[in-house]
Amino acid sequence: MRLRAESLTKTFGRKQRPGKPGLQVRAVDSVNVSVNAGDFVTIVGESGSGKSTLARMMLGLITPDEGRVSIGGVSIAGTSRKEQFKFRSAVQAVLQDPSGSLNPRKTVRTALAEVARLHGVATNRSDIDAKVRETLSLVGLTPAGTYLDRYPHELSGGQRQRVLIARALIPGPKIIVADEAVSALDVSVKSGILSLMCDLQKRLGIGYLFITHDLTVVKKVADYVYVMQNGRVVEEATPAELFTNPQHDCTRSLLNARLELDDVLQERYTNHEQGPPALSVGH
Ligand SMILES: Nc1ncnc2c1ncn2[C@@H]1O[C@H](COP(=O)(O)OP(=O)(O)O)[C@@H](O)[C@H]1O
Ligand SMILES: [Mg+2]
Questions:
Q1: Torsion angle defined by CA atoms of residues 166, 168, 173 and 179, in that order, rounded to the nearest 10 degrees
Q2: Does residue 10 line the site of ligand 1, with CB under 6 A?
Q3: Going by CA atoms, what residue is nearest to atom 27 of ligand 1?
Q4: How many H helices and E strands in the chain?
Q5: 186 and 155 Cβ atoms separated by less than 8 Å
Q6: CATH number, domain at 52?
């Protein structure tokens, strides 16, 4: 099963008004990318390079001006509602949390059961409940019973992100499009979520289209990397090639930004090694 974008183009713009030229942004410009089930494919690029617009087109949420998105060779545009529904089950989204993605008024149980019902994964109450519990365990929220009746604000950022992953897993997707899914999280939480995603890749054969502006994430987990700049894919390679022999200036500057970040972390770490200043103990 392969999710594929061919020559995708999307332009946003204001209409021209008398005396004022129309302002057009070619957010995505003739982009070709693909991801197979079981592969960890990454898209990196600076902010504004068109990553989210590409993701939204690949999820079928917005329509491209040109080009096509297909899954398993079937184009998603102009297909029947039934086909579109199948597409939505096969390709799921996990987006950046900052709480917007989960309804604050719904418990974990309600949010997940709704998806199970909608996608016809299970029909009767006890099957739905079993599916919800099983999926929570799969994303490391165990024992599942502890989390079922919690509202989003009763969860940590990392736990909320796990619930979002669970929600994406319920329809039984082949591919997950993750747009900056770990960017807002602390380093330690981030690595926990990443290792969960890798674990699901191995156990369930899920493929990822993992979008990030942060190259540190890419090095360890990606099978293949696309680099975007100004709406275009300017370089693509395996991480090994990309890190040793970057071809494009944009890739080099993303790599340099990463090195600077490493320096900062290193410095903090070194300072920490020296230990905190001695506490003055009262006499
Ligand atoms: N709905 C929209 N209307 C107008 N311009 C948009 C819209 N969405 C994105 N853009 C513009 O398209 C470009 C790419 O944005 P985006 O896809 O969000 O990039 P990224 O996710 O890489 O930061 C930016 O210049 C952005 O301002
Ligand atoms: Mg974005």
A1: -120
A2: no
A3: 48
A4: 9, 10
A5: no
A6: 3.40.50.300
Residue of the nearest CA to atom 25 in ligand 1? Answer: 48
Decide if 8 contacts 30 (C-beta within 8 A).
Answer: yes
Mean pLDDT, rounded, for 267-282: 43
CA-closest residue to ligand 1 atom 12: 27
Task: Classify 31 in phi/psi space as left (phi over 0), alpha (psi -120 to 50) or beta.
Answer: beta
- Among 10-14, 25-29, 210-214, 252-256, the least confident range: 252-256
| Ion ligand 2: residues, CB < 5 A | 51-52
Number of the ligand 1 atom closest to the C-alpha atom of 179:
21
Domain assignment of residue 227, given as a range = 2-12+25-103+167-271
Q: Binning pLDDT at 50, 70 and 90, where does residue 185 land?
A: confident
- 90, part of any domain: yes
Q: Which residue has the higher pLDDT, 21 or 121?
A: 121
Residue 18 pLDDT > 90: no
- Tell whether 76 is covered by a domain: yes
State the Cα–Cα distance between residues 170 and 113, nearest whole angstrom: 9
Contact (CB, 8 A) for 212 and 40: no
Q: Report yes or no on 80 lying in a domain.
A: yes
Q: Is the pLDDT of residue 264 over 70?
A: no
Is 93 a domain residue?
A: yes
| 232 C-beta closer than 6 A to ligand 1 | no
CA proximity to 214, closest of 265, 157, 169, 163: 265
Q: Tell which atom from ligand 1 comes closest to the C-alpha of 213.
A: 22
Task: Compute CA 139 distance to the chain's CA centroid, rounded to the nearest angstrom.
Answer: 15
Tell me the CA–centroid distance for residue 53 and ligand 1, in Å: 6
- When divided into structural domains, the chain yields a total of 1
Distance 210 CA to ligand 2 centre (A): 11
